[in-house]
Amino acid sequence: MQRFLPAFLAAVLALAACATSSPKLPPNYVSGLRAKGVGESTLQRVQNGRVLTYNDIMDLVRHRVPTSKIIAYLKATQAPYSFNTSQLEALKRAGASQDLIGYLMGSAAFYSNNPYLGEPYYTDPGFMGPPPFGWDGFGDPFFY
């Protein structure tokens, strides 16, 4: 029994390290958003690797954050987005590209089998703990 204890403890510590990983955003990611005038609540969610709300996405669109950067962030959160037609139309009127609208429409079906959907990361908009899947960011620089 005692010879299994070190291996068991090592496994528990490895799992804990994965569960508490912090977002790995490029160094200029948040500063690039801030320079574009993106609101503080959206900045806080991004900095903490959070799932974005409709208002956060609208904030990014209104501040002309490039579509590729918005979609890259949304993909990194592995969240299904389910917006109604009027919300999608409002995003489009605000300047959202067809690529962003298409991504948002398809994400619900694509991520519907995500095993973590019941976790507070997805269900509680105020939750600021670590993502349940071990965030690894998306690597490339946000602004050049």
**Sheet with most strands:** none
Uncertain spans: 4-22, 139-144
Estimated radius of gyration: 17 Å
Strand content: under 5%
The sequence of SSEs as H and E is HHHHHHHH
How far the N terminus sits from the C terminus, by CA atoms, comes to 55 Å
Q: Number of helical segments?
A: 8
Helix content: 40-55%
- Number of DSSP strands? 0
Q: Can you walk through the features of this model?
A:
By secondary structure, this protein is an all-alpha fold. It has one domain (5-123). Helix content is 53%, strand content 0%. The chain is built from eight helices and no strands. The chain has helices spanning 5-19, 29-35, 40-47, 54-62, 67-77, 85-94, 98-110, 120-123. Helix 4 (54-62) packs parallel to helix 6 (85-94). The longest helix has 15 residues, at 5-19.
Task: Offer a quick outline of the entry.
With 144 residues, this protein is an all-alpha fold. It has helices spanning 5-19, 29-35, 40-47, 54-62, 67-77, 85-94, 98-110, 120-123. It has one domain.
Please render the helix and strand layout as text:
Blueprint: H1 5-19, H2 29-35, H3 40-47, H4 54-62, H5 67-77, H6 85-94, H7 98-110, H8 120-123
Helix pairs in contact: 4-6
Keywords:
disordered C terminus, 144 residues
